[in-house]
Write a structure and sequence with these properties.
This protein has about 280 residues and is mainly beta. The chain is built from two helices and 16 strands. The protein is globular.
């Protein structure tokens, strides 16, 4: 079930020539039941925070051949000077005979964004195995990348990433920080359009390429946090290692209150290299 964007968030994209012409305009969500998420019980992130300097919001738009438009919201991390790494389901796919567009918002508050802090996406990449039936060990390949026009605004920088051979430092005792623009309560319809962070604990490996978090204490990702990064602090540096994929819960009012799942960035170098090569053409 997808949730509605706030009016102010819709105006951000409307100001760029897109019209919210249907009540079907919605924000993307994280979960096994089609939910993508926000940070439950998270705290606002100031602009000077390391995490705020590398984390961005994504507004995706699709329009079918009849003109019916759908909008959604996700989170991502700066992988290169003009490239964002996110989840595959955060990359808009044009309906048959329709169109797609996406925008990157460089602000800790989506509703405060201006033309100076918004960049149009000019190229899209989705992992080739996304939505394919693969061996359980392969995970669900929920990875995507977006290339945007121009340069990132002053104050932003490319993220730093945990090396694949350092994944063994991730354990149940690790203090993991997740970030996103998603919902702050899975039991309400009120979306959150501000960047927040929260602390979660690793429950274990779901498979070779995904890690599960225990969110039964009501801390973690929820709708709108899809594509958002998971960090671990090493020697004073926030290193990203995971991308939010989905959540699982017992019912519609607590769908973010049991488990969440992040893909391991370090296992996706082949896809990342392929996308970067595509973007360089």
């Amino acid at each position: 079930m997808k949730k509605l964007l706030t009016t102010k968030a819709l105006l951000v994209s409307a100001a760029l020539g897109l019209t919210a012409c249907s009540p079907a305009s919605k924000d993307s969500q994280v979960s096994y039941n089609s939910h993508n998420g926000s940070i439950i019980n998270g705290t606002l992130i100031p602009k000077e925070d390391q995490i705020a300097k590398v984390t961005v919001a994504i507004i995706g738009v699709t329009k079918d051949k009849t003109g019916l438009e759908n909008q959604f919201k996700c989170t991502g991390i700066l992988y290169a000077a003009n490239v964002v790494l996110t989840a595959a389901h955060c990359v808009p796919v044009a309906p048959a005979g329709g169109k797609r567009a996406a925008f990157i918002i460089f602000d800790t508050d989506i509703n405060a964004a201006s033309k100076e802090t918004v960049r149009k996406v000019v190229d899209f990449a989705i992992h080739e195995n996304w939505k394919k039936k693969m061996p359980e060990s392969e995970g669900n390949s929920d990875f995507g990348m977006l290339k945007f026009e121009g340069e990132m605004p002053t104050g932003y920088e490319v993220g730093k990433f945990l090396a694949p051979d350092k994944h063994d430092i991730l354990s149940a005792e690790s203090d993991i920080i997740v970030a996103g623009y998603g919902r702050i309560d899975d039991g309400t319809e009120t979306p959150n359009d501000q960047l927040r962070k929260g602390h979660v604990k690793i429950a274990g490996l779901l498979n070779e390429k995904e890690i599960a978090f225990n969110q039964k204490d009501r801390n973690g990702v929820c709708s709108g946090d899809s594509g958002g990064p998971a960090f671990i602090e090493v020697d004073g540096q926030m290193l990203a290692w995971g991308i939010a994929s989905r959540v699982s819960g017992p019912d519609e009012n607590t769908y973010c209150s049991e488990w969440s799942f992040h893909g391991l960035i370090g296992t996706q170098q082949e896809f990342i290299d392929s996308a970067m090569a595509q973007f360089s053409k």
